[in-house]
Amino acid sequence: TVHTSLDVVDEKVSAMGKALVDQRELYLGLLYPTEDYKVYGYVTNSKVKFVMVVDSSNTALRDNEIRSMFRKLHNSYTDVMCNPFYNPGDRIHSRAFDNMVTSMMVQVC
């Protein structure tokens, strides 16, 4: 499901072309709905892709809440990348990042 969703992200990004660079909204919306899950996507200006898989039975989450969660994730990811002691490509070892992701997961459940 996630691999298929990444293909959809690539299709949407290529369809947007240069408009994506000028676009401030990087949220791609619902990528791949299935009977059991809904898959949402987000891509950063530096082409980092975030994918969120949500249980289809969760009707409490709205599109604007998913968008807000992606923005929080993006901001936290940016904080990690801006750390001068982080080596790009290494695994992320950040309590703040882990806590933020965990709190988002608890919020969704």
Automatic annotation (TrEMBL):
Q: Which UniProt keywords apply?
A: ER-Golgi transport, Transport
Q: Which GO terms describe its biological process?
A: endoplasmic reticulum to Golgi vesicle-mediated transport
- Which Pfam family, an example, fits this chain? Sedlin_N
Q: Give the matching CDD domains.
A: TRAPPC2L
Question: What domain of life does the UniProt record list for this protein's source?
Answer: Eukaryota
Where is it localised? Cytoplasm, Perinuclear region
Principal location listed in the UniProt entry:
cytoplasm
**A cellular component annotation (GO) from this entry:** perinuclear region of cytoplasm
Q: Which family does it belong to?
A: Belongs to the TRAPP small subunits family. Sedlin subfamily.
Protein name stated in the entry: Trafficking protein particle complex subunit 2-like protein
- What organism is this sequence from? Sarcophilus harrisii (Tasmanian devil)
Which gene specifies this protein's sequence? TRAPPC2L
